[in-house]
Amino acid sequence: MGTADDGAALWPSRYLTDGRLVVVRSPRRAPVPRWSRLREAVLRLDRAARARLRRRPPPTEAEPPALPPEAALAAWDTTEARVAAAASRAWAETLREPAWHSPFLAANRAAFDGQAEVDRIVDLAMRIRDARAALGLRPAGPAAEYWDRQSAALEAAALRLGERADALIRHRDQAALLSAELRQLADLERLERSAAEIDGITVETAYAPAPADGGPAAVAEEIAAVRTAVTELVDLMTRTRAPLAEPPEPPREQRG
After folding, report:
1. Where are the alpha helices (DSSP H) in 1-105?
2. How far apart are CA 240 and CA 244, in angstroms?
3. Which of 87, 154, 223, 252, by CA, is between 20 and 30 Å from 207?
4. Cα separation of 86 and 157, whole Å?
5. Which residues of 115-138 are buried (b: 16+ CB within 10 A; e: fewer)?
6. Among candidates 11, 21, 2, 5, which has minimal Cα distance to 163?
7. Would the CA dihedral through 9, 153, 114, 92 be positive or negative?
């Protein structure tokens, strides 16, 4: 993959979205063709006449929905279609970057309309596609050379359009880098806030003030002192009662 530093084009490796070629343009209301308006007027008159004659209107076949121009462009999978898809993907990824919505880029958001730039790229890509369609198949004979020059000119125009898609990709990459830096800054600020609390805990656990009742250490010493006293008492009682553990010796005058 090319980068913003090596001068290579970026869009050839970054035009797929989830493995598909997707072209996105702002929704716009297309003008209704004149023949469509005429057809609707005829249908209204026909329905009115049948209503007066109490006849049921004939069933009308549902027309298949027209393929959106963006989808039709993507279906060609030509250079200009890939460029348009790369621009669409770059701007969609930019909008998902937290940095783009941060206060640090408020001035950039006000000055740059990325969706409008995507729309211009898509419109130019459609014009190139239409010109390719009008050019048709390569003819035979002397016209073939003329066809080759026109086809090469269209391909060159599509490649130049790729430079504008690359600008959007670089814009997205910079926003991604800023998002990472903002996350690191937020982590540092969070750790800075917790550092004071941790330092306080460290000091209190290392140099705790003596409590009024002596604290656990004093209680432990008191228990040890009681145990020592009890042990001494047990030893004393053991020595005192030791002679009673054996039969008493007879008096001297009773010995043989």
Report:
1. 34-53, 69-76, 79-95
2. 8
3. 223
4. 16
5. eebbbebbebbbebbeebeeeeee
6. 11
7. negative
Q: How far apart are CA 11 and CA 162, in angstroms?
A: 7
Angle subtended at Cα 149 by Cα 146 and Cα 153, rounded to the nearest 5 degrees: 140
Identity of the residue numbered 138? R
CA-to-CA dists, residue 232 to 221, 239, 240, 242, angstroms:
17, 11, 12, 15
Asked whether the beta carbons of 16 and 85 are under 8 A apart, the reply is: yes
Q: Which residues of 150-187 are buried (b: 16+ CB within 10 A; e: fewer)?
A: eeeebeebbeebbebbbbbbebbbbbbebbeeeeeeee
Q: What single string gives the DSSP state of each residue in 182-227?
A: HHHHHHHHHHHHHHHHHHHHHHHHHSPPPPTT-HHHHHHHHHHHHH
Site of tokens 């050839």: 12
Query: Domain limits of the chain?
Result: 1-30+65-235
Residue with tokens 């009742």: 213
pTM of the complete model = 0.65
Q: Enter the DSSP assignment of 24.
A: -
Tokens of 3: 């980068």
Reading the chain (256 residues) residue by residue, the pLDDT tens digits are: 444 556 789 999 999 999 998 999 888 655 545 556 666 666 666 666 666 666 565 566 666 677 788 888 999 899 999 999 999 999 999 999 999 999 988 999 999 999 999 999 999 999 999 999 999 999 998 899 999 999 999 999 999 999 999 999 999 999 999 999 999 988 888 888 888 788 788 877 876 566 565 656 665 676 677 667 767 766 666 665 555 445 556 556 555 5
